[in-house]
Amino acid sequence: MAAQLQHLGYEDEKLQRVMERLPCRDVQASMLLALMGEPEQCSYPSIFIYGHRATGKSHVIHTLLKELELPYATVSCVECVSVGLLFEQVLLSLFGSDSASLLSRSPSLSDFVRIYKQLSVQASAKQTRYIVLDRAELLRDMEANLLPAFLRLQELVEDNVTVILLSEIVWDKFRTNTGCFEPLLLHFPDYSKGELQQILSEDSHPSYSPELYSAFINILLGVFYSVCRDLRELRHLAALHFSKFVEPLEQGKVKEGDTHKLWRNIEPHLKKALQTVYLREVSSVQWEQQLQMEEKEAGAVRGLSAHAHVELPYYSKFLLIAAYLASYNPARTDKRFFLKHHGKIKKTNFLKKHEKTSNHLLGPKPFPLDRLLAIFYSVVDSRVAPTASVFCQISSLVTLQLLNQVGHDDQLDAPKYKCAVSLDFILTISRTVSFDMVKYLYDFL
Amino acid sequence: MMISMTVCWKWCGDERVFLCSMSILEVRFVGDGDALEHMVDKQQDVQGSSVQRLVTLRSEAERSGREDEAGLSELHYVQVLGTDEGEECVAAGGGASVFTFQTVKRSNRMAQMASELARTPTRSVTFRTTPDPSGPAQNGCNVSENRTPQKGRKVQFVSTTPHRLRKRLSAPSLRSDSDSELSPSDSGEEEEDDEDFKGKREEDRVNQSSTPSKPSATALYKTPAKKSKTAPEPPCQASLVEEYFEAHGTSKFLTSDRTLQRLHTPKLDRETLFRLLEGKPACYSSEIEKLHSSHHEHFNKWMLQLQLGYSVLLYGLGSKKALLEEFRVSLLCQEIHLVVNGFFPSISLKSILTALSAEILEHQGTFRNPADQLQYITTTLREQPDLHVYLLIHNIDGPMLRGGKTQNALGQLASLPNLHLVASIDHINAPLVWDQCKLSQFNWLWWECVCFQRYVEETSYENSLLVQQTGALALSSLTHVLRSLTANARGIFKLLVEFQLENKDNPSYTGLSFQDFYQRCREAFLVNSDLTLRTQLTEFRDHKLIRTRKGADGVEYLLVAVETSTLTDFLEKEVE
Fold it and tell me: Which ipTM value was assigned to this complex?
């Protein structure tokens, strides 16, 4: 298939080498090569490449530019917190180490264009220069003139330069109000299941046959393909689970050809890994060390999310409970829960139409400070003085992000809060102070 | 309503000098000119920014002289503290009660402590004070509604009952039947208790005495006199809570149609109001004076505590400005100190920091941001441990100093070993400003200083409905007005402010024409028709935010009637 690729400007061996390193991406690569043309030819000013995560955008571009030995600069826009850094990186990799010293301390776009012009006259290149901007969606958050300027940089600096933008976001979201020079759009489609199989099977284990590894990949994809098509994630999972897969072979229980037994052995483990490793509950190192080596049962280690227990002071617990009640109970029902002579009010009596859906589905509602304190005083079974300590604990709960302050414009007069903890969390806390939470919640009546 | 009620309820602790200060409130209005004059005469030689500052730099000779004294005076402080520690340590006790950490499980201990607090008349945290019925306290004060009719008044009446028993006694009346009994083990004996209770109530009716039903362990304590449903309850916390829920139970809120417009003179100007209020005699001036001078005894203690690394915080009813001023005059005159008026509507963190760095540390030049400036002040003060700076903040909870960033910066300053902070608070929710982290930085000692002085200067900057406003709007009232507007209206106003700031250097700038403004608002998706914009502008004009002027060509020009520096501060605050 690599033989299809032919291009006038480059040697055949180089092209051959490139194509070996780019499996399943030959259509895109040949398209790019066609766009780039021969090294001396003037290329298109800007190319915009988009595709999902892990579809080989950066990889294809980098391999092409590196193997064909073209002058290029790669900049990740995440790293560039200021435009000065971006300009510096471009100049450094295009014109050598002493070029960046020409830039002033906080350079503007016109500074960059001027210096670029100056340098390109001195070292006029015979080949097209390439500037690759990775994660280009972040350019939109920088200065407004930056993206339009990069799109027509060829015109501004009067040099044979092509800007390649890589992004996961479609071009429509990039367009500015005032319009700009439209780049060439290129789409990198997702890998299909067969392509994933082909790419993953390439990195086989040296001590086992490629067929065995291919069979393993087949099983892995069978479990994980429905939830994950990310090549990097799948590769990570494959590396993590292969040692478990070949365990029966090492013990001599199963022969290499007996795929069915191997499958029976690994399948429950993969299912378990779907719940733990893939959600990063248990780190990969933990998984390898504890579960594989010590033969422990997977799932015995408590993951990150199981540690949802926080030690709080006594009154803070009640404040949090009161905040939860205030957030998830409608204010009209307060009389029913916290008043002694509320009479016989049934749930159906004050059920309004929009409240038929559970309050827990709609999320927490904001409540004022005095309602929080009123509920607090009525749920605590002893007298509490409204001391500074109680108020400070409310603020501390906000700092700990167990409560949220809503609308930051009014800090003292009538502040509003929301409760930011889950039902499980508050149930645990109410159990420690032996408070029957469910009895007070409107949704569970 | 809730807040005002709690104010009285919280601060009406002192029984001996309890005064109704509400009805005799005298307000003096100080205009911008007066305020400026006031600042100038205090500033003496320092001019310029909006902080009222008072920096006295000691001369070298004085400094060395005082260092010799330092040892002596410190000894003196300790003596002072030692002698009157026992007799009157109300404030320290108050501080302790504010920060008591109660044990978790033994709730009766807590109840006891609460009732103990309630019985001591001088504490501020009381919620069951029994004031003198003959005193003037009852009228005009909201608390009087929920006060007991005082039959058989005993001080112990309140509750010295252990918590368990009290709970059981009040269980049928205080708790609804849907209310959960907290410990499940109790549920079995609950009914039995109930019957027990009924029997006892009968007994109570017969002899009106306070014999406990179980003579075993509870015999030591007196039970409350009676708890029948018809008798009004004492104003305890539970009833306050119930009142809150009763008041907020219905979604219907009745508003009165008796507006200010129905008065003959809907809006007085400052002079008229001043004339009307003039000549009102001040009641209880001698008692207030006595109370005021009693606080003077603590000055030496405060000074010692400041030296020991604490910050002093004053709270209580009445203006504490005069007290702090006397403290400054009597003890801080020879020291380097800075007075910050937190109630001043245009004060900002930047102006405080500039006063510190430029006047006290004598640093020339500018800083890029407040964080840099703070860094500079911190390092400079750490390098010179002999330089002691006193920071006096009237109203540290003032509207402009409430923000988290400002309090953080002040906390960092207060945590320096050679910067000493004295401050006062007035807002009922003031402790909400600080969380545990900030509290540890400030290291407060809470002193209760009930002064009953009028908030003359503090309230002079607030805009009241009764009074016509004069002059340009200050920053806090600007933000206050804008806060109540919609997001779009704020956007419209911000657009105008930004345009005015762009043209601040242009002396011939006459304002933005309406057509131009409409165009800009449309581009920003803020209005859909010029009618909407006109409505919005009318609202701005009502709040005196903008002025319109007809130009020579008959076109309307719009101007923001606020100073440029205030506008810049406003935009900075908006960005936060």
Answer: 0.81
